[in-house]
Design goal:
Elements (H helix, E strand, L loop, with lengths): L3 E7 L3 H12 L6 E8 L5 H11 L4 E6 L4 H9 L6 E4 L5 E2 L3 H11 L4 E9 L4 E4 L10 H7 L10 E4 L16 H9 L6 E12 L15 H15 L3 H24 L5 H18 L13 H8 L2 H11 L1
Parallel strand pairs: 1-2, 1-4, 2-3, 6-9
Antiparallel strand pairs: 4-8, 5-9, 6-7, 6-8
Length: 319
């Protein structure tokens, strides 16, 4: 059994793929498997995958499937993953060579369910540091609930104990911002989180990436968060997590979602986004201003006072 299975979805990334795979096959942790999923790519990425499966037959496994999006490719890779821990790597990114050795050692040191690390945003001319936003290792349910408030919500700066996937929590197909939707459901099954305060993951910022694209698919933010609420209610754990869900829901709709929507050139579409955000918050959390979490940070105070006037100012500043 490999110590870590690395799942790499591939779609039209021939310019970046070799750097990504080089950073994986040269990991200081040798006992790994690299599961590369060709998600119906239309460029020459498969030729690159073939080169690595041929050169590293015991380490790199290649699979081809019809295009279904990054969630579909990750879920597909999970079917073939046999490692003690699972990791996800986007094929236009790359990692430091000691990432998985240090994260695996941290994981087994106290049998953590998840281990998270810090990262860099990589631009053409610079690297900007970013953080997991977890200060210490987490061992109690109360600490895990509190971590939901600030945790960096990506799939790829973490490793996950394979046993977590017995709960059948996978990535939601054909949506944007699938990492958030996945993580906030999975965290309800987590008992411990380890933290490594090193910047192992290099998150490449490229013009064609989803995070740099703005169209009406950003409304998936709202759909995803309504789905998260439904998940907690269906599993009868909503009341236990209500304060944290309430804060996160308002935060993502009034901050992250609105910030993304401010990139719309069509002002009417932006106003529609603002109206939908306000409508959904009022429907799901009409009394959110009583929540203690909003009074602990400047961002929380902004969320308390967000209104349509603020949204107009944000749009003008963004332009």
């Amino acid at each position: 059994m490999p110590k870590v299975s690395l799942i790499v979805p591939v779609y039209n990334v021939e310019k970046y793929l070799e750097k990504c795979l080089n950073s994986l096959v040269n990991q200081t942790l040798e006992d790994i498997e690299i599961i590369v999923v060709n998600d119906g790519t239309k460029d020459n990425s498969q030729k690159i995958i073939d080169k690595y499966t041929k050169k590293y037959p015991k380490k790199v496994k290649g699979y081809i499937k019809e295009n279904g999006g990054v969630s579909s490719a990750r879920n597909y890779g999970l079917k073939y993953a046999s490692g003690e821990y699972i990791a996800f790597v986007d094929s236009d990114d790359y990692v430091e060579l000691d990432m998985y050795e240090k994260m695996y050692n941290k994981a087994i040191s106290e049998n953590f369910d998840i281990v998270a690390c810090d990262l860099f945003y990589v631009y053409d001319d610079k690297k900007v540091e970013a953080f997991s936003n977890l200060n210490n290792d987490i061992f109690t349910q109360e600490e895990i609930k509190q971590s939901m408030i600030n945790i960096y919500p990506s799939a790829w700066n973490k490793i996950y104990k394979k046993d977590l996937f017995k709960h059948k929590i996978y990535f939601k197909d054909r949506v944007w911002f699938e990492d958030v939707e996945f993580l906030y459901r999975l965290i309800s099954k987590v008992n411990s989180i380890g933290v490594v305060h090193e910047k192992f993951y290099n998150y490449v910022q490229r013009a064609g990436a989803i995070t740099k694209t703005f169209d009406d698919r950003i409304f998936h933010y709202i759909d995803n968060w309504n789905g998260i609420l439904d998940y907690y209610k269906k599993n009868k754990i909503y009341d236990e997590y209500k304060l944290e869900l309430e804060y996160c829901y308002v935060r993502y709709l009034y901050a992250t979602f609105i910030k993304s929507a401010s990139n719309f050139t069509d002002k009417k579409l932006y106003e529609e986004a603002v109206n939908k955000a306000i409508e959904n918050v009022k429907t799901n959390f009409p009394n959110y201003r009583k929540n203690k979490y909003f009074y602990k940070s400047l961002k929380g105070l902004y969320l308390l006072t967000f209104n349509k006037l603020y949204s107009k100012i944000l749009y003008r500043v963004g332009k």
